[in-house]
Design a protein that fits this description.
Strand content: under 5%
Keywords: Membrane, Transmembrane, Transmembrane helix
GO biological process, one term: chemosensory behavior
Largest sheet: 2 strands, antiparallel
Strand order of the largest sheet: 1-2
Structural class: mainly alpha
Organism: Zophobas morio
Number of strands: 2
Shape: flat
Distance between the termini: 95 Å
Radius of gyration: 32 Å
Number of domains: 2
Protein name: Gustatory receptor
């Protein structure tokens, strides 16, 4: 099941140009041509949206610098994932081979089904959030927002899908590390002296295999991960100003609600509030107590 899912997902990645074929990761002329067309489209579309935004002319200097870096980072990220597929064919062969070994040697059907379920739900949820946020801004700002930010949302979708892809690969490697840990713990609980050579050899092979897999992973995804981290930091910086603006708007809204909150009064003598009602009840109770005491003394 996991092998079929990975094969389908790698085919989807081929359409978006961020993965090769799962079974035969080989660079072809059609793949190079398609990647060139996609990268050209992203570059031209980004240039058009920047032009529609008057080349950041409506922003202050800091906002201009952060926005330009965000656009440049997203475009560079798209270039990097395309180049990683085209220029690291040998590393992709090693990585896909390692993944097939992991899924075959450690056939944990239940865990893999759970992983696939979580991955699909998270992936669909992320794309849904991106689509709904774009729809909300589009309804608020109209076609102006579509002309200025349409390609940015497509790039954010690609960035999110690639991030999920990295999480999937890391989860598979993590599963094998857990299996090695379980195997080591089980072996230590038995009589190690009888098969110490076999245990050491088996663990040594597994750990060397995992180390080589992680090294290949780092070699392939070093630059994309770096750009992901850089883009996240820039996004936090870009949104930090928006947080203060939203805070000020919420503060004004709260004051407006307090000033215009309905107040009910009795012939304008006093307001009907919980404290006033409790004071009235307290006064009545005190009066009744005094009357009872006075009536008792009168009877004596």
């Amino acid at each position: 099941m996991i092998s079929t899912f990975l094969d389908l997902y790698f085919k989807l990645g081929q359409i978006l140009c961020y993965t090769p074929s799962y079974t035969k990761p080989k660079t072809t002329f059609l793949q190079i041509l398609y990647s060139f067309i996609l990268s050209t489209f992203l570059t031209v579309a980004l240039g058009i949206t920047i032009s529609n935004r008057n080349f950041y002319g409506d922003y202050n200097y800091i906002k201009t610098a952060v926005s330009a870096l965000l656009d440049f980072t997203l475009l560079t990220f798209n270039y990097s994932i395309i180049l990683v597929v085209l220029c690291k064919e040998q590393q992709w062969k090693l990585l896909t081979g390692s993944i097939r070994t992991i899924t075959t040697k450690y056939n944990k059907g239940r865990k893999y089904r759970y992983l696939i379920f979580v991955f699909v739900v998270a992936h669909c949820t992320g794309w849904l959030v991106i689509a709904l946020s774009f729809k909300a801004f589009l309804e608020f700002y109209g076609m102006w927002y579509f002309k200025n930010y349409n390609i940015q949302y497509l790039q954010l979708g690609l960035l999110f899908s690639y991030n999920m892809f990295l999480c999937l690969i890391v989860a598979l490697i993590w599963f094998m590390y857990k299996e090695v840990k379980v195997s080591l713990r089980k072996t230590l609980s038995d009589d190690v002296a009888k098969n110490v050579l076999y245990v050491v050899t088996n663990l040594d092979d597994s750990l060397c295999f995992l180390k080589d897999t992680v090294d290949v992973f780092n070699e392939i995804f070093a630059w994309p991960i770096t750009l992901l981290i850089f883009h996240t930091n820039l996004q936090i910086i870009n949104d930090s100003n928006s947080i203060s603006v939203v805070k000020e708007e919420l503060y004004e809204f709260t004051n407006s609600v307090i000033d215009n909150f309905p107040k009910f009064s009795v012939a304008r003598f006093f307001e009907i509030r919980r404290s006033n009602l409790l004071n009235i009840l307290g006064t009545v109770a005190t009066f009744l107590i005094i009357m009872i005491q006075f009536h008792g003394k009168h009877d004596e």
